[in-house]
Q: What sequence folds into this?
């Protein structure tokens, strides 16, 4: 028998595996398996979900025992082996496949490919560039055909993407959205939850954002960005990245582990172009003189009172400046011959005393 899932079916970034509760509850495994056999069977399902291709297992007793926790008890593994491998069949590639797990894996794989094609379509429209999605469409056709063989009654076959594949119109009208799931782009289908996501970063555990990343063989297309750069008339230095490819290589040189989607690279590059064209204003150069609470230290040293600390002096000078400003606003500018009121009062007192002494 041929393998039940395509050889490139990779769901290692899917943290959640769908579970058909009714099918499991009414299955022969539940009715006839012992507790240890049931436990081992479920662990093998989980292990196969993150194998490549998904829903498959290596036909090796040592590895199978390790998946179930019997790596140090080969005799115990032999006792439960037949019950744990209930439903698994060996295919032409030498691996074991389970039909029920393969059905769920194919549904998730179709959804992932559909979202990747949708992302490429949106990025191409947004940036006015050409993105080759032929390999994704070919993988999607294979997955739909395989699902029709494994589970012809699957609900996924009645959704938008599967119908487009069957009508041979996918190449002309690629889907603008992931598999139809009630209009909510963030929903990943029953049982998928937030476990779907990055296809490029295999070790990324934070996949709740459901971002489908580019494939490893993707290469950036430069003409659209070259035209954008020319239209922006940005003066560039000799070592400045002039294409999207140069920009990615420059970022990789600084951080070799940096992994982004195709759309993220394009967005970061466009923002970088925008900053180059409209650089942020630089703050004025601050003098080298030290300040305390915004007051120059030279003024503090000149006007500090005996025993007064730098902070107290700075606060006093700030209040003093604030009071002078308020007073000037209220009283307005003084006339040239105007004297403070206290000086006038003192002169009047001196005149009265002089008149008394003369009398």
A:
């Amino acid at each position: 028998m041929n393998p039940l899932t395509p050889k490139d079916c990779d769901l290692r970034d899917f943290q959640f595996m769908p579970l058909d509760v009714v099918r499991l509850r009414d299955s022969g495994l539940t009715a006839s398996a012992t507790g240890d056999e049931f436990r081992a069977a479920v662990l093998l399902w989980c292990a196969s979900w993150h194998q490549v291709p998904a829903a498959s297992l290596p036909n090796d007793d040592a590895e199978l025992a390790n998946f179930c926790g019997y790596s140090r008890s080969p005799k115990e593994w032999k006792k439960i082996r037949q019950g744990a491998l209930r439903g698994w069949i060996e295919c032409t590639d030498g691996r074991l496949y389970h039909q029920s797990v393969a059905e769920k894996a194919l549904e998730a794989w179709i959804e992932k490919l559909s979202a990747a094609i949708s992302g490429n379509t949106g990025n191409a429209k947004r940036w006015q560039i050409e993105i080759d999605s032929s390999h994704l469409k070919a993988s999607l056709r294979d997955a739909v055909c395989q699902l029709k063989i494994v589970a012809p009654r699957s609900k996924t076959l009645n959704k938008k993407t599967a119908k487009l594949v069957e009508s041979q119109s996918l190449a002309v009208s690629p889907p603008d959205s992931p598999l139809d799931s009630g209009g909510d782009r963030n929903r990943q289908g029953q049982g998928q939850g937030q476990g779907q996501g990055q296809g490029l970063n295999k070790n990324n555990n934070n996949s709740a954002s459901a971002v489908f990343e580019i494939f490893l063989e993707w290469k950036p297309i430069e003409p659209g960005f070259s035209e954008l750069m020319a239209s922006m008339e940005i003066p560039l230095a000799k070592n400045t990245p002039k294409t999207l490819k140069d920009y990615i290589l420059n970022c990789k040189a600084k951080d070799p582990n940096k992994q982004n989607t195709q759309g993220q690279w394009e967005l970061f590059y466009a923002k970088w172009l925008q900053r180059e064209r409209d650089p942020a204003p630089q703050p004025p150069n601050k003098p080298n003189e030290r300040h305390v609470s915004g007051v120059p230290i030279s003024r503090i040293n000149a006007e500090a009172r005996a025993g007064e600390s730098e902070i107290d002096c700075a606060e006093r000078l700030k209040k003093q400046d604030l009071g002078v400003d308020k007073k000037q606003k209220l009283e307005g500018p003084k006339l040239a011959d105007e004297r403070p009121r206290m000086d006038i009062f003192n002169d009047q007192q001196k005149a009265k005393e002089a008149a008394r002494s003369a009398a």
